[in-house]
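Hi everyone, sorry if this is the wrong subforum. Our group has a chain we'd like a structural model of before ordering constructs, and none of us has done structure prediction before. Sequence below.
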Amino acid sequence: MSLLLLNDLIQQASGAKAAVTLSEGEDPSLPPPPAKDNAGPKAVNAHVASGDPTAAKATEALWLKDTYNFSATATALAVASCEEPGHWDVVLDATPFHPQGGGQPSDIGLLVAGEREFDVVRVHAEKSGVVHHEIRHAGTVAPFAAGATVECKVDEAVRRGAARLHSGGHLIDVAMSACGCTLQPTKGYHFSPGAYVEYAGKLSAEERDTLATQLQAQIDALVAQSIPTSVQMVPAHRLGEVCASGTVATNFLEPSEREKLVRVVSVGGLPGPCGGTHVRHTGEIGRLVIDGVKSKGKGTRVSYHTE
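Answer:
Right subforum, don't worry. Here is the predicted structure as tokens:
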């Protein structure tokens, strides 16, 4: 877990209405990713075909409640054409699609309206909590109107892969501590290929080589233990008590922010604020390979992938 500003935490990791666990059926900052975090399709500039996306309320974030919920029924609140021909922006009242953010790429999948299917190619969220779904539709007339009922179908393989990779990044933090390394995490990039976690501070070449071997051994042991993942909603002013030491600063909270609930995820026994999707237990991460430990600027980068 990286050191994050509270307003970012509240935006990324709040929104679920109750504490949840990651059971089947019930359920850190980014370098430049393939597309900028929280940036929408060049888009919604656009021709608003139905509804008003600027007036939409925060989307119910179903992905926060259940990593393994791959489908849901929702109501379209707004439909608008994007600048890119053949692409449309759709706002729903609720969605199981995880938007790009927090070091994790967005889900992809389908929106189904009646007998017609539309590819969801990207999802992003505004700071207000409104989630936008970018879909493909070649027509000049909106694919459906505000008020339409649509079925959301998340690509299960992509979601499961993203959850494994994101949880794996958290588990590297656990392994770093188990190895006795005191470097603090600063960035997490949970995209494939090229996933990594960065830490403040540098190590010698010999220390990096030794750490890489130790990390792999610790990761293998943590995965073998199948440590359960837990999720809880915590008032913002208590994050410093609940999360790992040094990962969250709460001393500058505005009065209005103190009681806002933030989602805290514990992977491998290490809790931290997170709005991403995660596995039910460390065993579901499967084979996680440490690709290397290298110096990066003033920090240290641990690269990894899952198999």
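For your construct planning: The first helix runs from residue 6 to 13. The radius of gyration is 20 Å.
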